[in-house]
Amino acid sequence: MSTLQTTADFLEHNGYTVIRCGSLAKAMESFALDHAHIDRIVTDLNMNPRGLPPALIDKTDNTRLTGWMFLLHSVYDEPKNDRIKTVVYSDFVGLLKEHMESIEETRDKEHDHERKVFAAVKLLTKSSVIDKDRKLMELLK
Question: What is the pTM of this model?
Fold first, then answer.
């Protein structure tokens, strides 16, 4: 059973309504159509890049940060969406942290939005947490 399936089943069992998106294109479409009713997002970082503009695909580190591009350019592109709680649940959390450390070293203003989003999201590494379900519930509250 996939991580998407088990995580979605767990969240539904705990009272959440879940929109399952097995691809980045589906996530972007679902968010565009229903963003007013979405108050929590759990996303992986490594997603099929189909649907991302080529300029953004170039920033995904061989598609390992496509979920990050989704958050930056589809979810947190408008201040009204700052209310959404997000958990990045991925084996590539370390790669995202390295990416953000390299941005911190530059101090470029052009990365202010990315810094703000990174400060707002919660990170959960799939492979390193013993009680993933309990931790996920804590991060979503």
Answer: 0.87
